[in-house]
Batch of 4 targets.
Target 1
Amino acid sequence: MIYKVITKNEFKKFINGLIGENQTFGPKQVDRRADGKAVYQFMEVSSFDEMDLNYTVTYSSVKNFFLPFKEELSHFKFSDNDWEQAVEYRVNPRVIVGARPCDINALAILDKILMRGAFPSPYYIARRKNTFLIGMDHEPPEDCFCKSLGHDTVHRGFNLFCEDIGEQYYLTINSSKAFVFLKNVKAGKPTKKDDVKLIERRKLLRESFQARVEVAGLSSVLDIEFKSPVWKKWGDKCLNCGSCAMVCPTCYCYGIEETIDVGMKSSRKERVQYSCNLVDFAQVAGGHNFRPLKEDRLKYRFYHHYRGFAENADDPICVGCNRCGRACLAGINPREVISDLQMEG
Amino acid sequence: MDYRLQRQNINTEPFMTKPPQYNRKSIVMRTDKVYKCEIINIVELTHLEKLFHLKILNRTERRIFKFRPGQFVMLEVPGFGEVPISISSSSNNTEYIELCVRKAGRTTSVLHQAQKGAKLGIRGPFGTSFPMEEMMGSSILLIAGGLGLAPLRAPVYWVTEHRDKYKDVHVLYGAKDPEQMLFTYQYDEWKKVNNINLLTIVEKQGKGWDGRTGLITELFKEVSIKPDNTYAIVCGPPVMFNFVCNYLDGLGIPMNRMFVSLERRMHCGMGKCCRCMIGSTFTCVDGPVFDYWSVLNLKEAI
């Protein structure tokens, strides 16, 4: 890995350079909540000043740039008694600025599942290869618990990562593209002083976490507590809306929908983001539902997130961003559910 | 000053022109490309089930498509949907495959209207298979309930093609009523030619039925099983697994010699959509064939 430092002014020039040549997305305030807190999302930007790099957290994660809510997998063209299938991987190069460590770690987890699993996904690979990702550290919001899961720092999955050391950013360069682009601006070698500032910055961030969850032995607890009343308690609250999965940076489960186009000459086969909390997630033709109860479905999501699946070497996939906790209309919060399971209440 | 990102077009990479090989994992392929097939024959089995004979049209794809008993394919009805269907034919048949499909949902209802000559797509084969070689030298007990006979027809074919390698072969088959029994036209051949002890039973008496009535467990009284040298394969509706497997476990058949084939909702067949998860395991990649010990270790399996 190569490290450099860059002044904030030069960094602005650098980002504006990228914006000038490429489609670029960055954090922008899009709304304000009833309690006055700003709502941020990754939006397309046309200049550096449009972005708010001090944003707390975006409502949805950057996952949706790689796993869109809806995406065409293939299409069929019909002719007399026959059809042809066409498969194409369409994506334009783009830049994403300001992703937080937890979001980048989430992508690294998705990489493991979607690029290196049993059947690598060409759709995901195409999007990942065509995205230039710039990460940025931040002071954790009070309800983030990424540190408990070891996702508060990041070592892979980005092109360039910036850590705020006052007047300058300390840059971690993780791709030749980033190295070449940086030749356009003044970026120097870090001095001993910069290194010290970096270590102090990291220490400050590490110590400013307020929320935590106890994950020690959690996967075994989940196994043992499969019939725990905790699931009914929280399952009864669940509204089966699937919001948690939509905002989650690692939820990747999906469904396939096929639609015949108006004119009956062609049809599209699309991947649609799905949620395991939706009622028909595990329902088979004929009507049998393998997870008929709300608690079955809620439990299953926690099982996937904190115990992990075989495709992911049985590692938990939750990164601790608490987006699901914030989005949940029924007030279900992963920290409280886990704390109930660990009997810490 | 140059900040332009070059597009990395994966549509020009070599894998784009090759047919996908679903038997080979961990390589990049067009995961949603189907093999085009033609329906060359339709056998009406019952008022709910039809047997489709599908021939893969492209010769290269037909050669690539090799499966083992117990595996399944994703069957594509363009414009309507894709459904997982277990393969019911002999793994030696390189000309066409046979899929037994029940009219149960949207896609299968459309499929049931299809005529001979219609073009469908398949992806696969996917999933695990029955360890037919490991079973050689032993007796085999195949237990099917209802539509469960469809996935068991592939191992039955295997056994008939290698009959000298196996000792006693029992097929125990239970259905709701006589009209719902599948593949009835083959029973005589299995019994008389292939020396298979086929026992059938129905829950509800029907017109012209002079066979047994009752639950499938009734049939156990009529077979003598040597637990130390018998393999069992079980497939049927979810309710059937528990009492059949418990019975076999009580007889003393080791858990790693009892195999089940499970059914789940599937949208990809490749361990990605997560619709078929049982506990922490993908039915499409690590199943649908599991030994009973694995099943006991899976949460919410049966």
Target 2
Amino acid sequence: MSLEFDWLFLAEIMLAGLGAGGLYALTGLAFVMIYKATRVVNLAIGEMLMIGAYLCFGLATAMNLPMWLAILVAVIGSGGAGALLERVAIRPMLGESPIAVFMVTVGLASILVGVVELIWTSEPRRLPEFMPATPVMIGEAFVPSKVFYGFLVAAVLIGVALAVFRFWRGGVALRATASDQQAAYSMGIDVPKVFSLSWTVAAMIAAIAGVIVGAVGGISSTMGVFGLSVLVVVIVGGLDSVLGALVAGLLIGVVESLAGGFLGGEYKLLATFLILIVVLLVRPYGLFGTHEIERL
Amino acid sequence: MRRTVLKSLLATAILSATAGLPAARAADKEIVIGGSIPMSGVFAFAGIGIHAGIQDYVKMVNAAGGIAGHTLRYVPEDSAYKVDQSVAAFKKITSQNKVNFYYGDSTAFSKTINPELDRAGSMIMSGASFATELNDPKKYPYQFVAGPDYTQQFGILLRYIAQQKPGAKVAFVHSDTEFGRDPIETSRGVAKALGLDVAIEIMTPPGAVDVSTEIAKLRRARPDFTIFHGYILGPIPEFIGQARQMGLDTQFMGTFWTMDNSTVMQMGELAEGFMGVMPYNYYYDQSAPAPMLDKIRAMRPEYQNVPYIQGFLSAMLYAESARRTLAAGKEMSAANLKAALNSIENFDTGGLIGVPVTLRGNTIPVGRIYRADTKARRMVPASDWIVLE
């Protein structure tokens, strides 16, 4: 490499980082959705993403559905599964201590991995190709097609989610429930329905993220670890902030990519967790999270 | 309640006391293979194959009358590919049986259990690990690897590369895991000695999904050959796909755990031309007479993966060292079994490996380069067998 700084390389890894960040943000959105409505820290988000990807895989390969239909059915199916999980595992925990509910989601994660290994075994697999293979060039910079389209899908979905929260009745109900459950109840909002809705929508978003993550990196019963990176994203962004998930997702995607590009792959996680520590020290409730004041 | 417990305890004690005599006699004429086998968990696809391989070989030997009047008995336990569970399985199996051979499921287990093997002095072990570190007879006197260790696998690949294109530029792409880092340091020197230029080493974090950054680096290094290590499947297809999209002309290669037929074929069209090192013949190989493969195909008409062959060969090597120890009239101790194993020279594996094998140190440093043919959905040989000296 010449002594001159390789600007194209910088551009390419920044774009790659944004692409990865889009996926972080999208999965972070699913996480925030659940936290905002139900105050449940859902550690099973990575596994919900995995279930979505595997459903899609099963429908596309075993049942030979065309890929677009497989994705659609998988997303709807995941939504159903999300509603079911909420009804069976989460709602009975209403009013229990947050740590107990948290542990239920840890258990859920484990069960979901077991389900996948039972049905599809633990062998790593590939989703059928469904995105155009021609690379996208932004100026002279090369952007892999999957990363580009994945980012587009993530951006659109996040935009829709922001709009829904703002304008749709259900979204407003969700925000109302988030800010004060008792008040929401007394205003006639069906709070259990809001809970169910939030898990359904989050599971659907996670399924879409799962299909994209699976298309990029392949699917396996360990792909749920992606959820761990997302946990960092939402903590940095603020657990209850959609905008926070968006900004932190992109930030962490880009920082990881820069660290990987200029320092080496072993520095990626180091960079991520450094950000986490710094943010926790400076703004313990995240960049955009609600600053809760507890008075004793 | 208490009385019933006592009663049943007593009954068990009497039963085992009376059953003890014939059982002990039978045990004298037994050779026991224990195993921490990953039948569940992330490594189950390999574990199930390994299990079937060991089981089949044991069945074959026993059907043919055993070894010098001894029958083989295989005692497996599921390890779920977790070290603590593997160790628990080891304790359970070795406390209930007089184990002569043991199959371990991971590098971590091989390292953890090593002092235990040294202390017991009664069994030798191999396993699913091809770790370079295990190829040290001083540190691991009672262990061996039923194939080439990872550095030797790289050595075979690099030798092939040097033959094909002297002075070629090579890239190493590996995961940031113990498995991934294993051969990198040592192979740098091997490449240099062969006159190759290691243009770039790229490390990917474990569980990395998007590898675009790494591919941007790879593209700038413009290697003629790119060797992946420390992965099973992901993110290899993504590397190949993106490299093809950007017109990067490099030959991609893999090591053992990527090279099973079904794993490579999962890459679909991207697999075309993918190469790698494999110490064994594939299940379907018909290119040379292979009586053992014929028997395997007769027993199991459907494709068996390479972990199956590895398990099968491991059991074969166990049996061979037992045979040699018994033939020499020696006691079945770890030292004698290992000495017998190390006396194996130009051994015919019945075609599991295409050339007669010799154990050097703790490994069998042999392999062949294969190339994926996606039309036939098979791995086809791209080189002769390469034996490292």
Target 3
Amino acid sequence: MDRTFLRLLKIAKDYKLWMLAASVIGFFTIGSSIGLMMTSAYIIAKAALHPSIAELQVGIVGVRFFGIARGVFRYVERYLSHETTFRLLAKFRVWFYEAIVPLFPSKLLKYKSGDLLTRAVNDVENLEHIFVRVIAPPFVALFVLILMLFLLGSFNFIYPVIILFSFLIAGIGVPLLSYKLSRKTGSRLVKLQARMNELILDQTQGLGELLVFNQTGKFKEEFANTQNTLRKLQRKNAIIGGLNEALIGLIMNFSIIIILIYAVPQVNTGILEGVYLSVLVLGVMASFEALLPLPTAVQFFEQSVKSADRLFELTDANAVIVTGKPDTREPDNFSITFDSVQFGYNSDKLIYDNLSFTVPQKSFTAIVGASGAGKSTLINLLTRFWNYQAGKILLGDTKLENISQRKLREYISVLPQTTHLFNLSVRENIRFAKPEATDDEIIAAAKKANIHDFILSLPDQYGELIGEQGMKLSGGERRRLALARAFLRNSPILICDEPTSDLDSLTEQKVLNSLYGYSKTATVIIITHRLFHLENADQILVMYNGKIIESGTHNELMKKRNYYFNMMKVEKELIV
Amino acid sequence: MHIDKKLINLSLGNRSAFFLTVFSGLLTALFTIIQAYYLSKTINEVFLKNSNLAEVKYFILLFALASLLKALFVWNEQNFANLIAENVKQQLRNKLTAQIFKLGPSYTKSSKSGEISNTISNGVEKLDAYFSQFLPQLFSSALIPLLILFFIFPIDILSGIVFLVTAPLIPVFMMLIGRIAESMNRKQWKTLNLMSGYFLDVIQGLATIKLFGRENDIKKKIAVISNLFRISTMKVLRIAFLSALVLEILSTISIAIIAVEIGLRLLYGNLEFQPAFFILVLAPEFYLPIRQLGAKYHAGMEGVAAAESIFKILEEPVQTNNQKSHVPFHDFVIKFENVSFTYPGGRNALKNISFSIEQGSFTALVGKSGSGKTTVTNLLLKFIKPSEGKIIFNNNNFNDIDSKFWRKQVSWISQSPYLFHTTIKENILIAKEDATAEEIINAAKSAGIHDFISSLPGGYETFVGERGTRLSGGQAQRIALARAFLKDSPILILDEPTSNLDPETENELLETLNRLTENKTVIMIAHRLRTIEKAGQILVFSNGKIIERGTHNSLIAMNGYYSELLKTYSG
């Protein structure tokens, strides 16, 4: 069987008893209708011979029993299979989360765009069908087959052989045939669907360009063409898919004919009691119910395997970050030193070649430069999201590798360029930085980040839910909320990536003042392209192409009349 | 109009396929009845008259023939149902894309563009099950039982009555329980979605989780929340599944009643075996379509939910285009006369503004974001029309000028230009479809992007986008500039990029812009002093109004909002 699928089963194996129970009850459900039809046939066939009513009693009880049992089993089966599905889904979620955490973000570079991660989450949710649609149907069919072999075997050996073959053809042959027939169109279909989605994106996002450059006609034509081809393929697939139900029904009817061909002479010669002729036929008819979900099982199997393949491709990447031998000793101070650091996200393109600088503890340092100069990468190295290739980074006198992940998180707080706000209340979002924080601490942090007054203006104040990814908030509000989080941590090092973007100039100044204040007790680094209010910074490092090309205070750098001076000139030109 | 009616109307657009689907369904039922008849004949002959195989072979052959024909029509029914689904999907997608073109960029920007593209691709796909499964089943479950009754009544009135009485009970009970269960179900699906939402939230927030060292807490929380959701969902499903229980029990009990009822009458000689067996074989077939409707109901409902967002887009009011396609273009003046614009949500983006733009002039629009600058360019691009007031182009009402004709005279560079999922060459070529290779290269050279394109392995044939090369914001800007150079139109509408580049690149870009705007009528949302200074007319926006206007020097002399802006931003 498929390797991917086996790996999935391995993850699901904790719930094998649940799966077994649900499948067995599923089997009982179909078993009941086989029982119902066989006893019904027995009653009327027997009745036709006009015996005493007593002889029908057993059959009548049986019919009632199976009639009710079918409904009850169906109920229990649905209950169990949903319970199993939810348990499996929870398991898959935890598994995926556990697998992806150590890989983030260095191994997920190509998943940087949120869409791909969203797709991965969808892939996890797609696995929800794996039990009800993929695993259960073959088991139920197998159990039904075994039941039928026994039931029919009690009459004559030939009937089990007939049912075995017809089950094999209808249950394996038919799904396999349609799978083979639709396979080629399947992969073309996937490509065309991707192309159609591209076109849809092109339209919704590039609408202005399409209109201004008068491309609507051309676009409509290409869209219509893609749709037409897509439609042709989907029609072809549907025609093949439609064969399944028809063929399974046909095989059922022909197995009844074959059974009749064998059974009629046996009735004639008295080997088979005439009463059982109708019992046999209706039993076989009822048993085919178990085969109907099999063709869809193949489709869902393929879909689950595809989803799982994508997930495994992601989770199979080896995490490189191995914490060396962490020292128990604390760093003697919280200065930061980069010493001849070499780093590139890909081996073929270096971001830093021999980067060196020092940030003294309890100081305010601004790292400035144009976008793309390599400023934000500093954070990825300091948090050890990525490993650098050569040189060393020190906190005080301790090498970064010798600090445990847990300690490192305690020492360094980061305000990244884009912060994720969870779909929780304002309070819980700030508290995320320090689960044990009191409400007072949270308010103090919010005040420092200049967001307290805004929070009080919200209908629910600190209890306000902020919506998916903080959708309800403006960019500046989100920024300050994230800053409140960073302040709450109260760690000895704070690094902020563009802390004042999206803020109006008045708020910008207030936020910067808070940061200046914080630098009295901690090492503060801000990474920015806005050269605004940096007059008080203890140190400004100017970065260009992954190198520090100038450093000094604002006044010193202005006197040099070099790169910083020119940046300042450009900056002054920007009005709004 | 109710959403179901709208959907059924769509399928009626494919009348013949719809008719053929229902017709095939009926023929399927008819052959099922014929099958049952010959099967009961065969068994009756063998069982009670001890006929041999030769004597019943015609019955068996007819049974086989009916089986073949049944299979054929089962297949056909699905084919035709799929044909409806495919037709409807195609029609809807074409309608949707046409509608999006009419609604224009201000619509796709205001509602989330991701939502719209999701509706066009996935939303429409979800309707497939509605048309290919639910709708045909709806008709089958009404027609097939009737057809079976039509054959059973003449044979045995009592069984016919049992069928007739029990069949409506199923939908009645379904509705009674279904209504309670359905609302609970819907609520529960919402909570289920919340669960997936929570998981997505966590995965997207991985960086934050890691930065704050909360990995293990969150892992436990995923498990705990998943379990809580499971328990509350199962509480609801326990009740919702009752509808399945009732459905199953009603149909199986009815079969049991039929079996006992005809069995007893057989016993007392009030009924023959052959019709009795015929009725018994048909009994499950009688209830099958109604039971299947229950199973396909959910798929149908998903389609209905998706249809809501589809119709929401399709029913969005659009502006009509009635239009002069030729107005002289020399010596023109564009006049805004008391123009206001209100977005559908009610936001007043422009309030009663007036100004004019003369041919060959350079107008800079200045102001904070949200002050109304982009609305002005959207009006000039004919993406939207004034809610009140008029725009006059020479002596023509701007609304009356054909938008295609107008846009031929206009080039536009947005703040974040869009690159299409195709080659770089095609991306430049949209500006002038019949451009020669030389013209394209010249345009790229003028935009300062030729060297970069040549350095790519595929050159001008390199694909851009998800599957191809990703270009940086600055490179995309330059492709957009190349488009504008290639189009060489008399009017230029520009949104100056604010992204911070290093000083050298910045200088180069401004110079390129200078060359592009030479001898053109330029309307520019401007952010840089060097650009603004060149403008013959500066319009200063605040809160949807023009609060100051003039040249750079005259505005400085005013010592008002403009000079305030200059001071705050440039320190």
Target 4
Amino acid sequence: MSDPSLYKDRVRVYPRAVRGVARRVKWAVLVFCLVVYYALPWFRWTRGPGQPSQAVLLDIGHERFYFFAIEFWPQDIYYLTGALILAAVGLFLVTSLVGRAWCAYACPQTVWTDLFMRVERLIQGDRNARMKRDQGHTDFAKIWRKTATHAAWLGIAFWTGGAWIMYFADAPTVTRDFWRGTAAADVYVFTSLFTATTYVLAGWAREQVCTYMCPWPRFQASMLDEHSLIVTYESWRGEPRGHGKRPPALLGANQLGANQLGAKPLGANERGDCIDCSACVNVCPTGIDIRDGSQLECINCGLCIDACNEVMTKTGQPKWLVRWDTLANQEARAAGRPVPFHLLRPRTLIYIAALVVGFVVMGVALANRAQIDLAVEHDRAPLFVTLRNGSLRNAYTLKISNKTHEATAFAIGLNGIDGAALSLAEDSEDHLPHLTLTVAPDAIGTYRVLVFARPAKPLDAAQDLIFTARNARTGETAAYTSVFMGPTAHATR
Amino acid sequence: MPTKIEKDAVSGRETTGHEWDGLKELNNPLPSWWFWTFVATVVWSIGFCIVYPSWPSLHSYFPGLWGYSTRDGVTADVAALAAQRAAVLDTIKDVPIEQARQDPALMAVANTAGRIAFANNCQPCHGAGGAGRPGYPALASDRWIWGGTLSDIQTSITYGIRSGHAEARVSQMLRFGIDGVLKPEEIAAVADYVLTLYGKAPPSQASAKGQAIFAENCVACHGETGEGKREVGGPSLKGAVHLYGDTSAAIIAQVTNPRMGVMPNWNTRLDPATIKALALYVHALGGGEK
């Protein structure tokens, strides 16, 4: 009894080098992404004394995120939510317009896999050399080339893992401490972790990540429609595929323009433009055959387009047998109809609208962000205290956020109960209409404050009391509605 | 032991040789990794019994070669915690208490240390946040029997009230009723008078009679007008805050057979730095006096 295997065997992919427009775009985006990733933490930004001088810094320990001129407090975390939503809608829009451009060029998995493949090709040679070596017996050349490849991969992976840490700690400091051995343990742990993940994912897992691990290919189908730009094979012109020379008269016979009325039926021994050279398969980083149509494994990178164009140029046939196109266009071309082009469709318009609304809301919210915040906690025990003279006292903990970079005095006032007076808990014999509390720059000041009142009418257990905090320098004000409590049937005397 | 090993025709596995009414059991032995893991745990347990406390005896137990004890662990942890706290508490130990109040950094330490010490030691009687309860004074209010300055509070905590310590604060109220000093109707008249002191009842003929008795018996400790005398621990009878209640019945009960609460002296239980932190914390609950 032999169990049928539940797992598909992995077929090793040996992508061949290729030149062309898609490859040039891929290199350009790759270099751009990597330069930004590795260099951004070293970018400096002047914020004043006592403030970090790193332009982009996620300072978890001090609960601050710095992004150039913008500083985020933990209370601002919903901006992160907004940014993620915008990123998601942006991705939807790009996908519905130009297919899986993200997967093809900008996804970190693609970028690092591409980089690792480039390194592999430099050390071990192109597709044929690599396949031959892997199948051949182990000799010195094989050993040193393999060792050199993995060493180079680990080097890149380490650099990648190290750069990750620099987003969370001052880059020059953490680099120096790292090599001196004095950095925090988690710096070493996370550097090792991201070194390992980069090495494994880009060196070993590669297209398996896209095919089996990533959820995106699974639901991107809902963003795509017949008007989305994808990588297509013009089967109406390529088929029937086959080796061998085409009669000069038939070269490109099926291409649009040569026959405006659509594909001309071919004779029994005639063949289409596809010479079945497998160049498109050999260059594919995920090892698929684009001629089978759009499929889940296809990341839409277009390297097969470059490969086919190279071949078509050599054989003197018209290029773009494999091309970026929409399914609707392909159908029209095959039928000889004029090619429609629908960039603006309900789907894309909705995504654009969502994107614009999101950006405007986020931008306005960010621009009008308060530099002040007031939170008031009423004491839980005791809820109220009766004083000798029969008046009531409630205690509150005030938390005043000073988001400015200067020490600031805040005037605290009360609203809602006539004759209510304030004091600091440590100076309970003062009874003042206003308190002035000072908060250090870029910090939260916590004060315990007492409120004295003798309500004119019986309290119904609690009544609203509004605290106001006013920045004495800028005049910015924040208010917080709390309660003043007393016995339910407090009799005034 | 099975007497005969045969192969099952359907599955191709060996049987155990056991048969029940024609049903035969297939031999599915444990995976070897499972079996050897089990053996390893048995071996491990033998070592465990040797080095750790294991076998009980009639009066004690075998302590194990390593002499491990969870109790020692707790003691060490408590000592380590005390040492860790000492680093912080030492900062306020030698500073005069009035000066500590002016220093926000020291007050932060005092408020934290004081809050924890209060919850552990004081809260059962004085209530959370010093709210007080009948018979146990509210510490958050501005009504103090023995004084509400920092040093008053520190002294009360250190030596206690009627605690038996030589330095303890002591005051005693006579048992006017059960010792026969005053007759019940005289006590009732005094109660009528006391009610007028805080406006619970209007002055009356009875209260006027009570005022005369009050002047003879009570003013020594409670003051001419019931304002209290802190130097002898005579509570104020005026005002809206009362330790044992503000009703006529409560006053009569207290005069007849007084309750006199006891607070322990905490100097034997808490170190001076903790007591100082406690005093600063209680003072800042809201009733502290300058």
